[in-house]
Amino acid sequence: MNHDIDTLTNRINPVTDARAAELLTDETAADLARRITTATAEADELPATPARTRGRRRLTIGLPLLATGVAGAVVAVSLVTQSEDSGGPVRLTPTQATQGQIKLASALSFTRKDRYLDVRVRDPYADPKRYRAEFAQHGLNVSLSLVPVSPSMVGTVVMQDTSEGTRPGDITDLRVKGACEVPSGGNDCTVGVRIRTGYKGSAAIVFGRAARRGEKYESTAQPDARGEAMHGMVYRKRHVSQVLAALKKRDITVPEYRVMVGNESQVRYPGQVPGNWYVHSAVPWADGQVMLFVGPKPTEAQRPNSSPPGVPVQPSSPPQVTPSATPTT
Amino acid sequence: MSAIPEASHPPDERRRRFEQVYAAHRGKILAYALRRTADPQDAADILAETFLIAWRKLDDVPRGEEARLWLYGVARRVLANHHRGERRRSALVGDLAGQLRIDLAMHRPPQQEGELAAIAAAFGELSEDDRELLSLVGWEGLDHGEIAAVLGCSRNAVRIRLYRARRRFARGLDLHGAHAPRNHALSAAVINGERS
Q: Into how many domains does chain A fold?
């Protein structure tokens, strides 16, 4: 039976390996390889370094810290700056970060204390290479980057990874209470990092920063969380047309939809979704944009299996793709 | 901060190793993704993201044939998140697959007919896990040990689950009136939209 069954499965194979290889021309393949190996220099120093240096991996990218309070590193805004043309609420940073304009003073400020070096982010939009260079000038091997996140995640530590041998107090978040207000509540802000004098290890740190118009979020919170685009809105089980109308009042657009077809989530674009369909769920997408999960029924019912596909085998690891995801984590 | 920073200059050896892995497995990983997505452009993203992760975690990529299993495992997770529409990926992933997205835009897998449609329907009604197991055997051609490596479970677990999946598939085939394979060509059937 096995043989027959496997043969049957094989017969409905949509694409053979050979066909796929044809679809991927050498030229396109080379282009992709080039982009991968060059384009990732920045964000990538993070996961690339820790391959050897498995130290403290504290936070998983994408954890909505403010929402969950995970990992004790819940930090609030600090790195909030008003992006040039976003309509979001203005939150001044305690660091006089620029209005999205790059002032070529310094991207970081360093204050040497007795046992620590305090490093504050002055310009959250600076090229990460500048941060790196400035850290290097102080003899530190730290790569810092700031990624666009949805409003309530701004100012949170998205990821921090340090080399082997790093002790808990070697690198800590530099928080200032009352320094600023966070869209999702609270006023305890991360303004940078504090590094123990004499620290010789390496670290990679990713902070969430406000997204500029058109930039897609790399990490998101619930769409109706405080500070998010759909805060206070009721949208589940509502007609798409209703929700779109409500969003329009807030100047929020929907660039893409997701529809479950059978077991599969497919992309739909504006105009391809009937107004009398229902909204099941939503995700912050970019400044002024959300993505909606929709379907013909009020809820996404009768899914053959409720467990999401591909959930990692280990129950402890959250099913998220992080830039450092591996099949073995 | 620009989404795509300029090139740094990683050591040549690192790059060479990546290119080896990439050249050896890119077609298979694209095939894996194409078989499991309705939109070929999603497959482009999945290929890009999978190899982006491979590049970043190059030291973790096993040598030899094992690399392919490692990559399937990564692709499987990327895909799972993709289906959930999560946007936790790096923004630059969206730009990576640029040309490939364009190339694949015209790709339309052929529609299945007749008995293949019944087989596909029965297949589509299986659970996600069952389909993945059967696919890893029937499409990727993996054996128990290899599947265990991809899924991160024991070989024995694979054997048991696979046994059950085959049984359920057989039952479904009966319901759909599809029987043992006859003389159909091994044509590529689409069951997009009924599976993921």
A: 2
